[in-house]
Design brief:
Low-confidence stretches: 127-135, 139-144
Largest sheet: 6 strands, antiparallel
Number of helices: 4
Order of helices and strands: EEEEHHEEEHHE
CATH superfamily: Phosphorylase Kinase, domain 1
Structural class: alpha+beta
Mean pLDDT: 84
Number of strands: 8
Shape: globular
Distance between the termini: 31 Å
Strand order of the largest sheet: 1-2-3-4-6-5
Number of domains: 1
Helix content: 25-40%
Strand content: 25-35%
CATH class: Alpha Beta
CATH architecture: 2-Layer Sandwich
CATH topology: Phosphorylase Kinase, domain 1
């Protein structure tokens, strides 16, 4: 099994220019997490490491129903930076909202309102932090 730090990597959830997100298992607490890593090419840039750590710390200060919980910021032995966060298992929001789905128009509006509430809270709490990244959104099966 592939590991990163103490985490067991189970599968890749997504990959983009900024890095990769894995479904992982924390063996110490015996729970599943989303593990976000930074692309190695970005770490070569002068301020990328500090920016990633600053954004993780800012996100870790946020406690809100519509924002995932940050569990840990770390660095693996090979220098890979990662953030371990709450894993939301459910339907990808882009898929859920696009085209015909099982959601009614009113339910879709409620999802958008919930996202706005989370973003509003984050903006008010971290007003002095420059965290300019696209929000990653999903719809957990529990309706959280």
């Amino acid at each position: 099994m592939t590991t990163l730090g103490k985490f067991e990597l189970l599968s890749e959830l997504g990959k983009g220019a900024m890095g990769t997100v894995y479904r992982a298992r924390d063996p110490v607490l015996d729970r599943l997490v989303a593990l976000k890593t930074v692309a190695p090419a970005l770490l070569a840039q002068a301020d990328s490491r500090e920016r990633f750590q600053r954004e993780a710390r800012a996100a870790a200060r946020l406690t809100h129903l519509n924002i995932v919980t940050i569990y840990e910021l770390g660095e693996a032995e090979d220098g890979t930076l990662y953030i371990a966060m709450e894993l939301l298992e459910g339907t990808d929001l882009a898929h859920l909202m696009a085209g015909p789905s099982q959601l009614s128009r009113d339910q879709k509006v409620r999802v958008v309102v919930d996202i706005c509430r989370g973003l509003d809270y984050a903006h008010k709490q971290a007003w002095c932090t420059a965290t300019s990244s696209r929000p990653t959104c999903g719809s957990p099966p529990t309706g959280r």
